[in-house]
Prior knowledge:
The chain is mainly alpha-helical. Helices cover 72% and strands 4% of the residues.
Amino acid sequence: xxxxxxxxxxxxxxxVRTNLLWIVFALTIFAGSAYAVEVTPVASTMPWWGWPLALxxxxxxxxxxxxxxxxGGGVLxxxxxxxxxxxxxxxxxxxxxxxxxxxxxxxxxxxxxxxLANLRLALPMAVxxxxxxxxxxxxxxxxxxxxxxxxxxxxxxxxxxxxxxAKKSEFPEVAQPDxxxxxLAIHGVFHDASQRRDINWQVHRTPMGLGLFVGIGFLxxxxxxxxxxxxxxxxxxxxxxxxxxxxxxxxxxxxxVDSSAAWIYLNKGAVLAIIAVPSVIGMMLGANIGAKLLNVxxxxxxxxxxxxxxxxxxxxxxxxxxxxxx
Length: 326
């Protein structure tokens, strides 16, 4: 039965990717406007089509590096677009969730076929994170944008420190799986093309991992940036899943977590089609390339690039929230 479900998800992956753009566009047009989002006018000499084009190009390159690094497109999208584009942060966070969702959906079928994403590992974590992401989204829309900018900047800089200090293990040793992971049958095999061999893996410390994913989901919803930055360390360092399986499964988890929080932003009218649509298209195209690079590209190379981008974007977000750098 499980194999049948997996095959069905793989067959429908292409259809999901094709229809996602139309779904995003329709939802952004018909989403309720129960919440009036504050819009700050920004003077600009850029023609109206210039910003959507810039968003498309930016998101295309972000999508390429997001999947191999396992951080998710939203983690890069929100601080970079929120800091360097003249859009209100509420709109950026709303689009950020759709961007993270799009990149994960685009990469999902390829990751599942290659054994780099595991459903048994992803689903328990995603269920808890999805529920807490709804609470985070509601809180994030209730507090002033300047406060969110400051909190976002501090969080991004914390992510930079975490990613810099964390020594990820390609193939962690798990001597004995815990009873919960055995009951859920969380284990698997994937073929590592770089080493040309099959890797058997299992996990431990599952209850602690489930607890951490509750907090991860809350932050994902509050900042609208997905949670790949935290998914990978928990799956890899805490639970003992191989690095590539952790990165691939992280992308798959985002499809469930971000879709839950995205509905809150849609319902509050905090998603604009002119921002979301070019961002989603660019991210999906880039993520397709990134998923193919995951098998052959060294994760450490992409990780260093992501750390540099996040450091600059985090400082920018913090200073912008404090009113020092507009």
